[in-house]
Specification:
The chain has 404 residues and is mainly α. A hairpin with an 8-residue loop joins strand 6 and strand 7. It is globular, with a radius of gyration of 24 Å. It contains 17 helices and seven strands. Helix 8 packs antiparallel against helix 9 and helix 9 packs across helix 10.
Length: 404
């Protein structure tokens, strides 16, 4: 039986109610699911699959709570990286690299994706297959599809999930994943599954839950489709010279020749290669932390997850699994997490002073970092785009004062 207490308004033809967590009735949810059933059949899902699966979906209040939840504090780069790239995960990744050596070599031959990167994604997504998520994917997606905030997107994902069941890839009882519908060893969304999942073990099914060959080859196929360049790595840690102009960490791509001319070296002190390979400079923890030159494959990784922290973690974990050591310059661990309200206050103060940071939404994105960088430059600070305590102090913002 479905829950009787629901959180989201489900009549999709009506405007969004003032409160995003407004209650709706069981009848609303049932009507929404019925509409999706008709839409799914019109898009090629068999009537039997659509009827049988959608008759069993339930509204999951917890999914709406997780979708609405915004973290009170941002995560520092040190905390993010150290939680994801640690000695235990590196060691386990090296073991997986050897255990699945022949399979990973095959994926490399057929897709061009080096084994260490595949294992790195695997480690970050599900800790090498140890946790896929325990929520019913159809129920999670139905809950989100019948919520106005992102109804169109999740309706498409739900219909894709029905097509996956329809093709016999996985039975409904085993289709479990994250609260947002990501599935299997590599946490593919259903639409990504339909486009890029492959049957690598030859059993006639594309099974990303129970078949490591299918999961690895599918990941390689997906990365290849996004333009992975097998001639180069993801990027690398570099050392910047004294007095370096951090305003150059502005997202613009420059050739390695140009970075070399500016005095940028690898971590061993050797000038970066004198070639016409474009890279952009990233300093995720400001001038006190590590610096990276990110190549084309960094953008491919971000096609998987739109987070620079994530992309650096994938690249660095891959390097470690392949035998590299820890970062030459570890991220400073004394940076404090910033509350969203602190970032909003920062954005408002910057906007008021003519440094456009965009909408004051409490999210530390590229526009805010660029605004911070311009403000630092004008204020005579190191213009690294990182809002440390000095930036807040000079803007007259007391950290934590805006929290309730």
């Amino acid at each position: 039986m479905r829950p009787t207490r629901l959180l989201a308004p489900l009549c999709l033809s009506l405007p969004l109610l003032a409160s995003p967590l407004a209650q709706a009735s069981q009848e609303d949810f049932d009507q929404c699911v019925a509409r999706i059933e008709q839409q799914a059949v019109s898009q090629g899902v068999s009537p039997d699959t659509a009827r049988e699966v959608l008759a069993q979906v339930e509204h999951i209040d917890r999914v709406i709570e997780l979708d609405r939840r915004q973290p009170e504090f941002t995560t520092t780069f040190a905390d993010y990286l150290n939680r994801r790239v640690n000695d235990a995960r590196v060691q386990r990744g090296r073991e997986m690299l050897q255990t699945h050596r022949e399979l990973l070599a095959r994926v490399h031959r057929e897709t061009g994706i080096p084994p260490a990167y595949l294992v790195s994604f695997w480690g970050l997504e599900t800790n090498f297959g140890s946790f896929f998520g325990r929520m019913s994917v159809p129920s999670s997606l139905a809950t989100l599809a019948c919520d106005p905030r992102r109804s169109t997107y999740f309706t498409g994902e739900l219909i894709s999930a029905l097509k996956i069941i329809d093709e016999g890839a996985i039975p409904l009882s085993q289709m479990e994943g994250s609260w947002a519908g990501a599935m299997g060893h590599m946490q593919f969304m259903p639409s990504v599954f339909l486009r890029y999942a492959v049957d690598a073990d030859g059993d006639g099914r594309r099974d990303l839950w129970n078949s490591i060959p299918d999961a690895m080859m599918s990941a390689g196929n997906f990365l290849r489709s996004m333009g992975w360049d097998n001639d180069y790595r993801w990027g690398r840690e570099v050392i910047l010279p004294a007095g370096f102009d951090y305003a150059l960490a502005d997202g613009k791509r420059r050739s390695l020749q140009a970075w070399r001319a500016l005095g940028v070296t690898d971590v061993f002190g050797h000038p970066v290669a004198d070639i016409d390979l474009e890279a952009r400079l990233i300093v995720p923890a400001g001038h006190r932390g590590p610096a990276f030159l990110a190549y084309h494959n960094f953008n491919v990784i971000m096609g998987w997850n739109r987070s620079e922290f994530y992309a650096i973690a994938v690249g660095h974990l891959a390097d470690r699994i392949a035998g590299a050591g820890k970062l030459h310059t570890p991220p400073p661990e004394d940076h404090r997490p910033l509350a969203r309200d602190d970032i909003k206050a920062l954005q408002q103060a910057l906007n008021e002073r003519g440094f456009d940071s965009g909408t004051a939404d409490g999210v530390m994105g590229p526009a805010t970092r660029n605004a911070v960088r311009r403000y630092q430059h004008d204020a005579g600070m190191i213009a690294d785009g990182y809002p440390d305590g000095r930036v807040f102090q000079s803007l007259g913002i007391e950290l934590g004062a805006t929290q309730s």
